[in-house]
Amino acid sequence: MLIPARPLIWFTVLVLLPSAVAVSWWPEFARVWLFALGGFGVLLGLDALMLVATGKPHAHRIVPHALALGVRRAVTLRIENRSRRHLRIDVYDHHPNDCEIENLPQSLNLGSNGFAETSYPIRPIERGDHQFGAIELRLGSVLGFWQRRVQAGAATTIKVYPNFAALTRFALMATDHRLSQIGILRRRRRGLGLDFQQLREYREGDAQRQIDWKATSRMNKLISREYQDERDQQILIMVDCGRRMVARDDHLSHLDHVLNAALLLGYVGLRQGDAVGLMTIAGEERYLAPRKSMAAINQMVSAVYDIQPSAQMPDFYNAAVSLMVRLRKRALVVIVSNLRDEDEETLMPAIRLLRKRHLVLVASLREAILGQALAAPIHHPEDAATHAAAADYLERRGREFKRLEAAHIPCVDVEPQGLAMAMVNRYIDLKRSGRL
After folding, report:
1. Stretch 85-95: mean pLDDT, rounded?
2. β-sheet bridge partners, residue 236
3. CATH number at residue 156
4. Pick from 110, 80, 79: which is nearest to 92 by CA?
5. What percent of the chain has pLDDT above 70?
6. Dist. CA 354–CA 332, nearest whole Å
């Protein structure tokens, strides 16, 4: 398809139209003007014919098949000129709409039978499957009056997964025993429920009950028992995918924050020797039974990477009934949602049902804007109304968590940015207390 190039448009506006107006005032120049116009038309025709006869360039896109949400990556375009003439090419890429891009279009100058590579950054802002269309090339004509639009290259499908960078950081920190730098605290073990690991020499600070007196008498020196956290337990993360998860904080939806936290908790649980599973509620139900192998993380990512918030409200009780049928062995069930006072009707019956067999941890996101509203200075009546509304909402929300605490139900209520660390630290607390 041929389209007028910018020089032709400017020539028409600045030369042809004014000259046509001038000829209407001085008719004696009409013949000269028509002769010049005809010659210019011949030039335009020849320029267009040479452009149409030019061979179509070849284009190829290089992009990772899997991207992480919110992480900038490079897309590389390779353009090959298979004709015998020099080409000026404007390059456009039909990228997915749910991605932020920069540095497009780009202009290239290719010699005969030459090639060039160019790249631009892309940042996905929505999870799921996304598709690149063809690469659009606009070839410049010899005289520069025309551009020829051609489609080259094949469509490409990519998958955008939750941002698993935190998992990589956790693995590196765990290797160097520096977990506290990302907010995961190593707490002292207390209580029972710990597995015996080995005997070792007594160290200063060992509790007296750790001393193995039989081994001490045999070895003629103090010997202590060393324990490790219980292994082969189960974690089931119940994720609310309802309409409350549409809210956004820090450029991510609440569902994205929840999924990132679930993946990190799952990874920590697997490193602790536990089996990890996942269940979604309020929307399309997806269930992964707890598995102990590290492949469980890949399964979790594949199961939820394309799930989006639904328009439904969560029904915690029906979800609990379904889970009790599916999960027979005792587990830590982590309910992750954005709790409101109206949830009491289905939440408390669900927890009572689950506690007959499982340990329940409730993790709730709290909108960051609420804290900002309380901290904002009050200068106008509208500011006071906003402050009062936020305080009233948080007070009603707080009553729900006081009921949970009164029933001895572990819970966390944090802003989205702190959800992952809060869930992991509470899991470690529960595991080391022997309650699981």
Report:
1. 93
2. 277, 333
3. 2.60.40.10
4. 79
5. 91
6. 10
> Does the pTM exceed 0.85?
no
What token pair was written down for 212?
A: 């193995």
Kindly state whether residues 219 and 235 are assigned to the same domain: no
Alpha helices in 223-272 (DSSP H): 254-271
What is the rounded distance in angstroms from the CA atom of residue 157 to the CA atom of residue 373? 42
For residue 201, the model assigns a pLDDT of 84
What six digits make up the tokens of 377?
């200075």
Angle CA(254)–CA(292)–CA(435) in degrees, nearest 5? 75
Could you tell me which residue, 159 or 232, shows the higher pLDDT? 159
CATH of the domain at 273: 3.40.50.410
Give CA–CA dist 224/206, Å, rounded.
8
Higher pLDDT pick, 434 / 269:
269
Q: Which residue type is seen at 168?
A: T
Residue 26 sits in the same domain as residue 149: yes
215 exposure class (CB count in 10 Å sphere: 0-12, 13-18, 19+): middle
Residue 174: the pLDDT is 46
Strand locations in 230-337, DSSP E? 234-240, 248-249, 252-253, 275-281, 287-291, 332-337
Same domain, 180 and 130: no
Rg of the chain (C-alpha set): 33
Q: Hey, what amino acid is at 70?
A: G
Q: Give the total number of structural domains in the chain.
A: 3
Which strands make up the sheet holding 58-62, listed edge to edge? 58-62, 73-80, 115-124, 99-101
Contacts of 46 (CB under 8 A, 6+ apart): none
166-181 burial: b if 16+ Cβ within 10 Å, else e? bbeebeeeeeeeebee
Identify the sign of the CA torsion 210, 211, 214, 215. positive
Q: Do 388 and 344 reside in the same domain of the chain?
A: yes
Taking the CB of residue 352, how many other CB atoms lie within 10 A of it?
A: 14
**Shared-domain flag, residues 247 and 208:** no
Q: At what angle do helices 30-53 and 17-25 cross, to 10 degrees?
A: 160
In sequence order, the β-bridge partners of residue 199 are 225
Mark whether 242 and 218 lie in a shared domain.
no
Residues 203 and 242 in one domain: no
Instruction: Print the domain residue range for 261.
Output: 165-172+176-187+231-433
DSSP code per residue over 14-68:
IIIHHHHHHHHH-GGGHHHHHHHHHHHHHHHHHHHHHHHHSPPPEEEEE--SEEE
* Angle between helical axes of 381-406 and 344-354 (0-180°, round to 10): 20
Q: Is 139 found in the same domain as 44? A: yes
Tell the residue number behind the tokens 């710990």, with chain if given. Answer: 194
